[in-house]
């Protein structure tokens, strides 16, 4: 007999099941039934295949890793052999030994340094080997060109002692800790990044040490050898104490290898349990010395490289399931897909993509909704395009003023003819003036909105040459442009108005000079234009500076109110152009005192990209 409590419990269960059925859509129910009846046999078959093939895949994976490790061992051993062979060449070279033997009795002549350095370059050509020979006496050393920096002999005494403890025909392999301790001021490793360093001593026939040879390779050389291996594989080279000499991930160099204990307990491989992924470690003795070479790779990645051959049946069953699901989804989603498309498009628009369109054309509510949606996006995109066009027209307005007055090609042809005639009359000064004026006009009539800072400064040089021809007292132009600043792309003519004002109002009709300085610092370009003219007092300076204290939004609003306003090429126009391009990241400051000249300082980002037309297209 069922009690009232049992009946109540069953009723609650039925109500709960009804709520679940109501929450699940018909599409979800249909998919669930298909998945259940197809997944059970497929999962059983997949489980059986995985269990039977797991051991085979593991064995093949370990063999593959051991083969890759042997390749790395061959690469590294060959590199160490090359270093030792280069040292042997020096050791048995009669000219080098003779020079070093004489160095114990008398100073080594400078010519010997040039000859031996050239010989070291020849020995180590087409390689990453860095080599230095340190005579036992003297303050100078021999080296190839890839060996960097200077050092103090006192800092190398511990290394000399290591080499004195071995035979002259033996090679000492420096430990990771010794390399780490040597990376300090005064030691040659402070400016050299070798991760493998070998050393040996040279002696004369009496057994006296004449010099010490140090040779090694940096991490880049070893990275070049391992770049053909799998990207997810990490190669370690351990010294005889178990410290890391080389780590292509550059994390554990000079540190004790964290899995030495497991390596002592296992034969040649083991698996490391990690929170992110399990790692397969394969290791073997290094062929050249008492070192150890280790390969670490995510275990699942290693399994995936070989597991494809053992999962063919799994893929076939999975493809059958996917095919049935695709057919089902096609039938179920045939009428519901447009709503999903609209939702996807809404997400893309939220991410900032206004180019996307639904392109859904149906004679129902969904079709009308999608058409209105597309029309709204078209209007928004047209409005944004209009704003961009207005800003582009504003930046190009002053260029049009300069370029629309006369025919530039006619002027250039006339100037070229005049220059040839002047040169025939041996008037080189006038010819140079015509050449500078021609270059100046070519720069003016180019259609480029932006050029390199180096070209802008060159334009100023031509401008000053032309101006000096019309002045009784010439103006000197000094430029100091750093290497980093030369190739920075800048708006055209942003310096000329400053230089023009300095000529007309600052220096006036007197002798004077203008200095242009540019450099890059902290991701910004700093350009300073300084003259030694009459300057201005504090009141005029404050008035001038305040006229440049408005932002990009205010400038655009002013432009929209005055759409027919023409642009000049004055300092205010320069400020407007630079602010439109760089926004709040652009700064302009003016410094001046009466009779002490005036300085205009620009600061704007160095990484701003602007379109620069090819020079040939504007001629």
From TrEMBL:
Cellular component aspect of the GO annotation: plasma membrane
Annotated localization: Cell membrane
Transmembrane residue ranges: 30-51, 312-332
Topological type in the membrane: Multi-pass membrane protein
InterPro entries: Bact_2-comp_sensor_kinase, dCache_1, HAMP_dom, HATPase_C_sf, HATPase_dom, Sig_transdc_His_kin_internal
A Pfam family matched in the record: HATPase_c
Protein name as catalogued: Two-component sensor kinase yesM
């Amino acid at each position: 007999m069922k009690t009232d409590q049992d009946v109540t419990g069953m009723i609650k269960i039925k109500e709960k099941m009804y709520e679940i059925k109501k929450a699940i859509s018909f599409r979800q129910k249909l998919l669930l039934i298909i998945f259940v009846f197809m997944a059970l046999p497929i999962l059983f078959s997949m489980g059986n295949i995985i269990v039977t093939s797991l051991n085979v895949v593991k064995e093949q994976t370990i063999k593959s890793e051991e083969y890759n490790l042997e390749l790395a061992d061959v690469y590294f051993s060959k590199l160490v052999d090359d270093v030792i062979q280069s040292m042997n060449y020096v050791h048995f070279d009669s000219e080098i030994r003779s020079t070093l033997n004489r160095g114990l009795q008398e100073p080594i002549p400078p010519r010997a340094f040039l000859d031996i350095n050239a010989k070291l370059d020849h020995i180590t050509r087409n390689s990453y080997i860095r080599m230095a020979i340190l005579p036992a006496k003297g303050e100078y050393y021999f080296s190839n060109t890839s060996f960097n920096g200077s050092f103090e002999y006192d800092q190398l005494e511990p290394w000399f002692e290591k080499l004195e403890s071995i035979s002259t025909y033996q090679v000492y392999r420096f430990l990771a800790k010794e390399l780490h301790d040597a990376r300090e001021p005064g030691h040659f490793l402070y400016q050299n990044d070798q991760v493998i360093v070998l050393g040996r001593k040279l002696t004369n026939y009496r057994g006296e040490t004449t010099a010490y040879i140090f040779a090694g390779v940096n991490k880049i050389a070893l990275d070049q050898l391992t770049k053909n291996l799998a990207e997810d594989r990490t190669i370690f080279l351990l010294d005889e104490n178990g410290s890391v000499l080389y780590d292509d991930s550059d994390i554990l160099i000079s540190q004790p290898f964290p899995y030495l204990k497991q390596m002592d307990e296992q034969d040649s491989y083991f698996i490391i349990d990690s929170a992110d992924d399990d790692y397969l470690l394969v290791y073997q003795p290094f062929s050249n010395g008492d070192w150890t070479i280790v390969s670490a790779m995510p275990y699942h990645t290693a399994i995936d490289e070989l597991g494809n051959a053992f999962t063919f049946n799994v893929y076939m069953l999975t493809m059958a399931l996917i095919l049935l699901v695709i057919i089902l989804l096609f039938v179920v989603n045939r009428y519901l897909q447009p709503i999903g498309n609209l939702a996807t498009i809404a997400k893309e628009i939220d991410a900032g993509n206004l180019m996307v369109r639904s392109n859904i054309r149906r004679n129902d509510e969904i079709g009308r909704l999608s058409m209105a949606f597309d029309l709204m996006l078209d209007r928004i995109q047209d409005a944004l395009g209009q704003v961009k066009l207005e800003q582009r027209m504003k930046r190009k307005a002053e260029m049009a003023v300069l370029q629309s007055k006369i025919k530039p090609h006619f002027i250039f042809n006339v100037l070229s003819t005049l220059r040839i005639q002047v040169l025939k009359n041996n008037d080189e000064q006038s010819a140079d003036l015509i050449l500078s004026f021609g270059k100046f006009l070519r720069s003016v009539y180019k259609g480029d909105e932006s050029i390199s800072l180096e070209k802008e400064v060159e334009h100023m040089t031509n401008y000053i040459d032309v101006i000096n021809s019309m002045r009784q007292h010439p103006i000197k132009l000094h430029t100091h442009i750093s290497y980093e600043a030369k190739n920075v792309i800048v708006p055209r003519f942003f310096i000329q108005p400053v230089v023009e004002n300095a000529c007309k109002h600052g220096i006036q009709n007197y002798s004077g000079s203008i200095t242009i300085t540019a450099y890059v610092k902290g991701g910004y370009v700093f350009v300073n234009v300084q003259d030694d003219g009459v300057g201005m007092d504090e009141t005029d300076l404050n008035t001038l500076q305040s006229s440049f204290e408005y932002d990009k939004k205010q400038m655009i609003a002013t432009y929209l109110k005055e759409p027919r306003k023409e642009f000049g090429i004055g300092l205010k126009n320069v400020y407007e152009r630079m602010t439109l391009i760089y926004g709040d990241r652009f700064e302009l400051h003016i410094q001046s005192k009466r009779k002490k000249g005036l300085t205009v300082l620009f600061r704007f980002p160095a990484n701003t990209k602007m379109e620069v037309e090819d020079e040939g297209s504007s001629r």
